[in-house]
Specification:
The complex is a heterodimer. Chain A is built from 11 helices and no strands. Chain A is mainly alpha-helical. Classes of the chains: A mainly alpha, B alpha/beta.
């Protein structure tokens, strides 16, 4: 049973990281980008390529993978968000980010192949350590680090405060001289950095696999909806709840119900508590 | 006559002549549609099968075609998507007016496409294993060259119960349509033999750790694991869980467990030991390390086109080759591309020699031409030139 809980916790950490990435981008753009899961996929594959194929040291592999995801985050903002937001108030970003996500996924499928490939061991460790294996604990540790770093960033740095200002009221922030477009681009880069870091740490668990992105995009969104949009604590709680729930439910009832349970959780929150566990209830001023 | 009029007449005559010659040329060729998932997540098999299809077409065309008519192959990439496969099938049938359709490659696409092709009356060579894809009443012109899923399961079950003499069986399927249906079928066939699996489960194809399920199988007293999934990652994770637990029970199941991508995903190479799968006699080495003559001949002929190396399962190539050869036989015997005549010719086909299969036999009530004798159980970690060693007997 310990292995079930640890697997659930590790997957929950991954979902939480996807939800955190959503939050970072959402705070400045009010966009829920379909490319969120792909940030993790890109990092996992690039990391496996640099360390496994090109034989780089894991530290440089990590730098390369995170840099690639960060650039991908920036490209997402430039290609799929900036122009769409400038020209339309409709939710066309859903289509533009879906298109970009599909292009990137297919591109990686053509280059890397469509079968999952291994991600190298980062720490020398025997495979018989069961629940204490690094493939479970690396993503959990990485997400904890990210949560602390994000809290520090938002509360203690000037940029963090500017982020909060843009999130609260972009028009007021712009009136105060904040370049909101640049802040939005920066938020996509930070989401890329975050996704890249956790995607790299979790790749031993997920394998370097081209179609990882869309499922993480979905599960990250469910974690976000359960935890509460805009709340980092909610993203973490939602991710861990989703990971543990699907893992335990699969253990007792079999995998046929895994997706039903995940989507059921989403529906339950949307219907009963749309603001999520930690979100703010939005009331419309009339 | 005005010079413009002269020019117009000349042009019209030239155009008419061109149209006549091209339509005469088109009438001369036999069009075959090939629905192949050459890109996307399910492309490995299709790419290999495509080599066999192309090679057979080139060979037939070089030797003068079928009854003097050249074959024109119209390849359409479905990307493994059932919707695309249906659209492309309709295009091949109604716009291109093909005489035969090969494929699609994957079960999901085939389940959507075969009924559409059948409704148009176009002869169809089925290359997916799902049992429901052939039916002499519903799909009278759909003839299968690949073995059926039931043949795979029956032979794997027989190997486990009769050769390995194991009866405490754990079945693991994935939660795709194929995985669920196959795991159920495997359990039902075992139960018909009087053996109730001690553990049976369906898991998510992308589940990141199988340690819990393999632990439960061990606690249930299993002495063999039978995975029914084509998901490489899931199969590797089952082998890794078994290896990490140092629980050396045999694993016998789906052919994907012999695929080379598995090797890279294993924590240790030895985790692939004691693993067996359903394979084919045509791609199984005998005791002296030789392949059947027909397989070796095709391999030698096609190897230069593959840059000298065969790094995928060779039965895919052989099956693609045989699919075209069955069409050649059907049209050759029928003497035309009339669908009715082709159906009659194939229904009378008995013991047609193949490479992938020792022979193909169909009948008025039989659309599955592959015999049980063409199946062999292979040792998974013995891949060489797309072929395998026979499992211990």
């Amino acid at each position: 049973m310990l292995i079930v809980l640890v697997t659930g916790l590790a997957m929950g950490a991954l979902y939480a990281a996807a939800a955190l990435s959503y939050n970072v981008m959402y705070s400045t753009s009010k966009v829920l980008s379909v490319t969120t899961g792909h940030l993790f996929m890109v990092s996992g594959i690039v990391g496996a390529y640099l360390i496994g194929d090109l034989k780089w040291h894991w530290f440089f592999g990590l730098l390369g993978a995170v840099a690639t995801s960060t650039v991908f985050g920036l490209i997402t903002e430039f290609v799929a968000i900036r122009r769409v937001l400038a020209r339309s108030d409709e939710h066309l970003w859903l289509l533009s980010t879906l298109a970009l996500a599909t292009i990137v996924q297919q591109g990686f499928g053509l280059w890397w192949g469509t079968e999952p490939r291994p991600f190298p061991r980062l720490i020398p460790q025997d495979f018989s350590d069961g629940a204490w294996d690094q493939r479970f604990w690396l993503p959990i540790g990485a997400v904890m680090l990210i949560v602390i770093a994000l809290e520090f960033f938002y509360r203690r740095t000037l940029f963090g405060k500017i982020f909060m200002a843009v999130s609260e009221d972009p028009f007021a922030a712009r009136a105060r001289g904040v370049a909101t477009d640049r802040i939005r681009a920066l938020s996509f880069a930070i989401a890329g950095l975050l996704g890249g870091f956790v995607g790299f740490a979790a790749a031993q668990l997920t394998y370097a696999y081209f179609s990882l992105g869309l499922s993480l995009t979905l599960y990250g969104f469910i974690a976000l909806a359960a935890g509460g949009m805009g709340s980092n604590m909610g993203a973490l709680a939602g991710g861990v709840l989703l990971g543990l729930l699907t893992s335990i439910a699969t253990y007792f009832f079999g995998g046929s119900y895994q997706q039903t349970i995940a989507v059921g959780l989403l529906m339950a929150f949307l219907l009963l508590k749309p603001e999520g566990l930690f979100g703010n209830r939005n009331s419309r001023i009339v | 006559m005005l010079p413009q009029k002269k020019l117009l007449r000349g042009l019209s005559a030239a155009l008419a002549l061109y149209a006549l010659t091209t339509s005469a040329h088109a009438a001369d060729t036999i069009k075959i549609g090939w629905l192949s998932s050459l890109t996307g997540a399910l492309s490995s098999a299709a790419i290999a099968e495509n080599q066999g299809v192309q090679f057979a077409i080139d060979q037939i065309n070089k030797s003068g075609g079928i009854n003097g008519r050249q074959i024109e192959l119209l390849t359409r990439d479905t990307a493994g998507d059932p919707t695309k496969a249906v659209n492309l099938a309709n295009q091949l049938i109604h716009s291109d007016k093909v005489a035969f359709i090969i494929g699609p490659v994957n079960s999901g696409e085939s389940l959507a496409t075969v009924p559409i092709v059948a409704r148009s009356g176009t002869p169809n060579i089925v290359i997916s294993t799902v049992d429901e894809l052939t039916d002499p009443v519903k799909y009278p012109r759909a003839f299968r060259v690949i073995s059926t899923n039931e043949q795979w399961i029956k032979n794997a079950n027989d190997y486990v119960t009769k050769t390995l003499k194991k009866s405490k069986i754990a079945i693991i399927g994935d939660n795709t349509g194929y995985g669920v249906a196959t795991a159920k079928k495997a359990a039902a066939l075992l139960e018909a033999q009087g053996i109730k699996p001690v553990y049976s489960v369906v898991v998510d194809a992308n589940k990141t750790s199988l340690t819990d399920e393999v632990t439960k199988a061990r606690e249930a007293g299993a002495d063999v694991i039978m995975p029914w999934t084509a998901a490489t990652g899931l199969l590797a994770r089952i082998l890794n869980a078994r290896g990490d637990m140092q629980w050396n029970v045999p694993v016998v199941g789906h052919p994907a467990i012999m695929g080379t991508p598995i090797k890279a995903l294993l924590n240790m190479p030895s985790y692939w030991d004691n693993t067996y799968s359903v394979g084919y006699a045509s791609t199984t080495y005998d005791n002296s390390g030789k392949l059947p003559e027909a397989t070796q001949k095709l391999m030698d002929e096609i190897r230069p086109k593959l840059d000298g190396k065969i790094d995928f399962t060779f039965w895919w190539v052989a099956m693609g080759y045989d699919a075209v050869k069955v069409i050649e036989h059907a049209i050759g015997t029928a003497g035309s591309t009339d669908p009715q005549a082709i159906q009659a010719a194939l229904e009378k086909t008995q013991n047609l020699k193949g490479v992938y299969s020792p022979y193909y036999s169909y009948g008025p009530k039989s659309r599955n031409g592959f015999p049980d004798s063409g199946i062999a159980i292979n040792r998974a970690n013995t891949f060489k030139d797309g072929s395998f060693d026979r499992a211990p007997q």
